[in-house]
Every structure is written in C-alpha cells, then in structure tokens.
Amino acid sequence: MPELSRRLFVLSAPVFLAGCMSSRQQTASVKPAPRVVPQYFQEMYAAKTDELYPVAAADLTKVEPEFYRQEVDYPTTEMPGTIVVDTQARHLFLVGENGRAMRYGIGVGKAGLEFQGVARVQYKREWPRWTPTQDMMARDPERYGHLSGGMEPGPTNPLGPRALYLFKDGVDTLYRIHGTTEDWSIGRAVSSGCIRLLNADIIDLYSRVPAGTRVVVLQGPESPLV
C-alpha cells in the first residue's frame, strides 16, 4: 500500500468507528423522565388523616394531568348544581355559575355495562358498605358470592370514602358515583358500571352536592332529556 494511502486509512478509521458508536447511542431506548407533579396538586391529593379511616395520598404519576381536579370553562344549558358525567371524555363536571364548572377525572364502566340518562342523587353515604349486584354475583360467584351480605366500610372497600347513589324515577339504578384506591384507573373504562373518582375528589364532590342533585350521564355529545 503506498505510504499516503496508509496514512489516510489510519486517520479515517477512528472517524468511522466514532460514527458507529454515535449511531448506536442515538437509537438506544431512553426511559421517559418521571412526571413532575406541581406542589398545588400534591397538596390537593395529599393523605387525609382526619377521616374515619386513613385515606392515602393519590399517586398522581399514574394519572394524566387532564384528570386532576380543576375549575374550567363549561358552557351548558344545565342549571348550576347539576352533575354532568361525560363518559367519552372521562370527566365529571359540577356545573357552576357564569359558564364555569368544577371538573374531575373519572373511570367509567366497561362497554355494555354503562349507565346512560338522567338520574338523581337519592342519598349520600360516608364510608358506605358495598354489596355486589345480583348480576355480579351470578357472573362470578367465587369472587362475589360470599359478599351477599355486604362488605364493611374501610380502606379496601371498592366504594371508597364516599358514595352518591343514583336513582331514576324513584328506582335504584344500582350505579354509584364513588371513590377508588386504583388511581391508575382514572381516565379508563374498567369498572363494572359505576363512576369512580380519586378518593380526594369524591370527598370534595360529596361536600358540594346535596341529595336530590340532578345527574346527567352522557355516552355521546348530546344531553338526554328528562
């Protein structure tokens, strides 16, 4: 090999190798940085020690920010004080004054098990008992059959610290608005039909609405008629 060619080869080799290493570094998988939750929301969803049973802090790293509780613009023909559940958007709105509403993130029922229409909050319960429906016990007797007499309230109760019981024309719909410890489920369709909120959110909503509150549950963009 001529002397000049050997020199060019030696000088070029490191550049070639460096290029390969750079390419591998660029294609290596990089884990996304953990979500940074603003202090305001950390305090909003902090643990509650003044409850009958302890309420753990919500793990907001498992919840998309759009599902954190916040006041938003919400033009609607519904009267202030109405609860509007938008199952497609995974949001619950408590209608306020001047086109505003308090918005909460929710988990909703699986396909075929959702409630749709207009109901009323017949009554409210703090730290309620939970009893599976007859359909649930029939579908999965091994899991639910022993709970026919109900489950005591507490941190592991599926209804969480609060529940709003929805009736239509005076008849129990068997659907509830309630809390959950499964923070990851907010924004998803996972439950057996009920509308679930983060525990801090159901406590907040519970304090704002009386029995008799109108509840509109939407499966599409239009509000159902009474």
Question: How would you describe the overall organization of this protein?
Answer:
The termini are far apart. Helices cover 23% and strands 27% of the residues. Residues 4-27 have low confidence and may be disordered. It is of the alpha/beta class. Pathway: Cell wall biogenesis; peptidoglycan biosynthesis. Belongs to the YkuD family. The active site is at 178 (proton donor/acceptor), 194 (nucleophile). This is L,D-transpeptidase.
Regarding quaternary structure, how should these chains be classified?
Answer: single chain
Q: What fraction, in percent, of the residue positions are helical? A: 10-25%
User: Given the structure, what is the number of helices?
Assistant: 5
Shape descriptor: globular
Q: Could you describe the largest sheet, including whether it forms a barrel?
A: 9 strands, mixed
CATH topology of the largest domain: L,D-transpeptidase catalytic domain-like
Number of strands: 11
- CATH superfamily label of the largest domain: L,D-transpeptidase catalytic domain-like
CATH architecture of the largest domain: Beta Barrel
Order of helices and strands: HHEEEEEEHHEEEEHE
Number of individual domains: 2
Query: What is the distance, rounded to the nearest whole angstrom, between the alpha carbons of the first and last residues?
Result: 92 Å
Mean pLDDT: 83
Enumerate the strands of the largest sheet in spatial order, edge to edge or round the barrel. 1-4-3-2-11-6-7-8-10
* Rounded radius of gyration (Å): 26 Å
CATH class of the largest domain, please? Mainly Beta
Strand fraction band? 25-35%
Low-confidence stretches: 4-27
Q: Structural class given helices, strands, pairing? A: alpha/beta
